[in-house]
Amino acid sequence: xxxxxxxxxxxxxxxxxxxxxxxxxxxxxxxxxxxxxxxxxxxxxxxxxxxxxxxxxxxxxxxxxxxxxxxxxxxxxxxxxxxxxxxxxxxxxxxxxxxxxxxxxxxxxxxxxxxxxxxxxxxxxxxxxxxxxxxxxxxxxxxxxxxxxxxxxxxxxxxxxxxxxxxxxxxxxxxxxxxxxxxxxxxxxxxxxxxxxxxxxxxxxxxxxxxxxxxxxxxxxxxxxxxxxxxxxxxxxxxxxxxxxxxxxxxxxxxxxxxxxxxxxxxxxxxxxxxxxxxxxxxxxxxxxxxxxxxxxxxxxxxxxxxxxxxxxxxxxxxxxxxxxxxxxxxxxxxxxxxxxxxxxxxxxxxxxxxxxxxxxxxxxxxxxxxxxxxxxxxxxxxxxxxxxxxxxxxxxxxxxxxxxxxxxxxxxxxxxxxxxxxxxx
Amino acid sequence: xxxxxxxxxxxxxxxxxxxxxxxxxxxxxxxxxxxxxxxxxxxxxxxxxxxxxxxxxxxxxxxxxxxxxxxxxxxxxxxxxxxxxxxxxxxxxxxxxxxxxxxxxxxxxxxxxxxxxxxxxxxxxxxxxxxxxxxxxxxxxxxxxxxxxxxxxxxxxxxxxxxxxxxxxxxxxxxxxxxxxxxxxxxxxxxxxxxxxxxxxxxxxxxxxxxxxxxxxxxxxxxxxxxxxxxxxxxxxxxxx
Lengths: 426, 241
Prior knowledge:
- The complex is a heterodimer of chains A (about 425) and B (about 240).
- By secondary structure, chain A is mainly alpha-helical.
- Helix content of chain A is about 45%, strand content about 5%.
- Chain A has a three-stranded antiparallel β-sheet with strand order 1-2-3, with no helix packed on it. Chain A has a two-stranded antiparallel ribbon with strand order 4-5.
- Mean pLDDT of chain A is about 85; it is low at about 1-30.
- Chain B is mostly helical and about 240 residues long.
- In chain B, helix 7 packs across helix 12, helix 9 (about 165-180) packs across helix 10 (about 190-200) and helix 9 (about 165-180) packs parallel to helix 12.
- The N and C termini of chain B lie far apart (about 65 Å).
- The interface of A and B includes residues 367 and 381 of A.
């Protein structure tokens, strides 16, 4: 008895991947096409997936060659420099095989067995399917090779000892491809795969502890992004960035265009939309929205706690009301309703109300533009006020918007505002 | 305002009925104009790019669009370093930066009243000479050679100096000299500032003496600059040789 021919996609399906809509269809149709067309379509799919993974944001330096690395990544442990991932044989990954590439993103080990620093989000990329990894690798091998040696990392003692990564991995790394939840829809699973895997959203939206790790039980509960001093809101609580009461359309719009009727993205999230999410199909951002919305449903928020006294709070409120009328109301409206999507609403805006006041303070100090995207090529910008408002005034106006119009935030102090004047802007 | 309020109430009611959510939405939309889009620039540069009272925030209005575009790109990509600008522009694409440059280049708000010089007549005379004629013995080209006889800049990419304040010009000359401000080729100002600093770099200096062909000065609001900053900077440079 001969062994029946089993298409590769069946194996992939057995391995519990997203084979049904990610692997089978392209491979089945490819059989009737020429090898060249097949390769081109794999490269094109790999490019799309590399955009979903936002590889370019870290692996390309400012004014640098595409994917040639060399971008400085400041961390609490020192500065890392990203690697050259172009197909140059000497300084890039030109001599790697698809097996080695998969092993790298799946296990966090480079072909020589060395351990990657977890600034490379292999904790998320481990969920990527083999088929997707192969497509990304095919795309990376197709870009222009650049001869540029990797710059050594500049890490403080003892973090310059790579063997410490073994300990980190024991605590924080779980290897394994994404396993679909069969009780959920295909759309939900596609969204979960993108959010947990390629999108590596947990890198910012989970609290990072003193060891530079985040625990799986706290996934997507929000946290201050080290070195950048932006607060990545919880995706599981409606009182933070939680999206439980947003419509699927608004979440999808926010991800893909950077603006929506409910809010806009700034800072590190603008980076993600600019370099990655704007290139996603509407089907994929919608799938991510379905998954993200499900995370925040049925959440019971904690009551926010402030550090200012009631008396100080009421003084701030009076001062803040006047500043708001003078500087903010012309765009955001007397009632904080904004003029969506370009002037975001402040009333009922979870990123204004959440426990951490870091983001609203930063926005008042530094202003900001949402990213310029295909869906919003010429965004409206918020002016900076660092040069014209004192610490007391910043605290006052942020306090005012956090407690007015039914918002449930608490007062902020001048010292909190002052501390963020020195926060790095990039 | 009353209408707006009613609209807001109406939209609140509609939403409450249709979706059961409690958040209100405004029926108003932001103006679809460049002026509204560049409000983020206005708090430091003025709504028409005329500048503000702060010495260090330069006038943008009427400068050649090519110059403004180059600066926006340089700030976005981190070549020109000023964190608040680097931050604002980081995720804006080229065509939008071009539209911003065109907007401020086309604005022509009045120039601020002339500043009364606070330096001696000797220094002022020296400054006027450097700005209009240069000093060949120190390899300092006249500012007017490139920035135009009336200092209103040259198309497509040399900025006007009119309306800039002493402290701003002084800061820029220092930044060129020490290499904290650079341009992509040709980096004329760094060559000028460094050459004049050391009294040599003859070949390089010639670049800045001769304005490239086909670039016509903009004849707009002719007013002699006679800026004390130029004088002071040059005086310092010479003193260190």
